[in-house]
Specification:
About 55% of the residues lie in helices and about 5% in strands. With about 425 residues, it is mainly α.
Length: about 425
């Protein structure tokens, strides 16, 4: 039995990708255990995860077969945690930070620095030219990846093993990547402060907004600022685990972010908002919500895009915060009408609620960004989390995340 917060029946069913009836069938067959109290049934998250891994690994064998499953890795984290359906960064509410603080302010607090050092203009020129060499059709995460490599190539201290270099590298990336994407005519971001009237903010969000969004949308960079704060960290995502594995081998900050981006660039993780944006766009343009959802599920084969997050019983708070902020933005009604129409249709058929991917999709549609712009916002904000986890991993024994394999192939003759 683990000490982690227990899952509700809805959360356990969502994690396994089954209906509640199937979940209780597993319980009746002794394949899963549960506890019952006045609030209903609850499940051990580690047992549910191990069961899910067994089902994925041996699809031809009945779930819960006697073959032992691989134990789930549990790592201690000092950064993010979810309590009572609210995300916190250390002891502070992520929702409150998103509403009241700039991205730079949150980053400097998390990294305990007074400023974020930016790449030099010459280094940015190299990064921009590297991006331009890919051509206009290159996916946005490919652009980010080559820009990381370019900023690494121009950094003579890239392999300095001192842990303080992780923060320096992280600052170069979170300020330099938006500037590289924005192009030669845009200012490079970082170190900005809010205006006294609470309006547009200079820095990373404003630079990224100029790279991705419509410049004539009032309040656009402020919304982007909030989104960057909300995506900094969230439990131990696969990209964060990849970052920690690289850090356990004492990789450089650039190599750590590159490893994380490899795991991030996946439809079940960092690029999930693309399908959600396509779904919302279809509904906004007049397609029937039920037909659009059915098409999205058929084409994606991974559930309803933009819905479901097992860490929350009442729905993903990151989506709630970002959508609430978007409701106050000018000309947001058509996008939010599409969000509401899809959410109503989903609620009639499944017990799942909007997640961060749907909120990022709504933001990108309102800003008239490309459908995959949400993945860029997500990745740049999450770099802060990856670097923070790398700092923690540098305090641990090197190579502790190097697992041992168990051979299950054919026997030798």
């Amino acid at each position: 039995m683990s000490d982690l917060p227990r899952l509700t029946a809805a959360e356990a069913a969502a994690r396994l990708g089954v209906k509640p009836e199937s979940l209780y069938a597993y319980v009746s067959r002794g394949l899963l255990s549960r506890e019952r109290d006045a609030a209903g049934s609850s499940f051990d998250p580690l047992e549910v995860e191990a069961f899910a891994r067994r089902r994925r690994r041996r699809p031809g064998i009945a779930p819960g077969s006697p073959a032992p499953g691989t134990p789930l890795m549990v790592l201690e984290t000092r950064l993010a945690h979810v309590d009572d359906d609210e995300l916190h960064y250390r002891e502070r509410s992520a929702a409150r930070l998103a509403r009241d603080a700039s991205f730079e302010e949150v980053v400097m607090w998390l990294w305990d620095v007074s400023a974020l050092r930016r790449p030099s203009p010459d280094d940015l020129t190299v990064a921009r030219r590297t991006i331009e060499a890919l051509g206009r059709t290159a996916p946005p995460l490919d652009r980010l990846l080559v820009a990381v490599a370019a900023l690494a190539a121009t950094d003579p201290l890239r392999d300095d093993p001192d842990p303080s270099q992780l923060v320096r590298v992280g600052a170069r990336l979170v300020t330099g990547l938006p500037a590289a994407l924005a192009g030669a005519g845009e200012p490079h971001g970082g170190g900005g402060v809010p205006h006294a009237d609470g309006g547009e903010r200079h820095g990373v969000a404003q630079t990224l907004w100029r790279a991705l969004g419509r410049h004539d949308r009032p309040g656009g960079s402020r919304l982007l600022d909030a989104a960057l704060v909300l995506v900094i960290d969230h439990d131990l995502a696969v990209s964060t685990l990849a970052a920690r594995v690289a850090a356990s081998a004492r990789a450089s900050g650039y190599a750590i972010v590159t490893a994380a981006l490899g795991a991030f660039d996946a439809p079940l993780h960092g690029t999930a908002s693309r399908a959600a944006a396509q779904l919302l766009r279809a509904v906004q343009e007049g397609d029937d919500p039920a037909i659009s959802i059915a098409r999205a599920v058929r084409d994606g084969g991974r559930g309803i895009p933009g819905f479901g997050q097992p860490l929350y019983a009442g729905g993903d708070m990151r989506a709630r915060v970002l959508l609430e902020l978007l409701r106050d933005a000018p000309e947001s009604a058509p996008v939010l009408a599409a969000v509401d129409a899809v959410a109503r249709e989903v609620a009639r058929r499944a017990d799942v609620r909007p997640n961060l991917d749907l909120a990022l999709a709504a933001l990108t549609l309102w800003a008239e960004m490309p459908d995959d712009a949400g993945s860029v916002i997500f990745a740049i904000g999450r770099i802060v989390g990856w670097i923070s986890h790398a700092l923690d991993e540098y305090d641990e024994r090197p190579m502790r995340l190097r697992p041992r394999g168990r051979y299950v192939g054919p026997a030798s003759e």
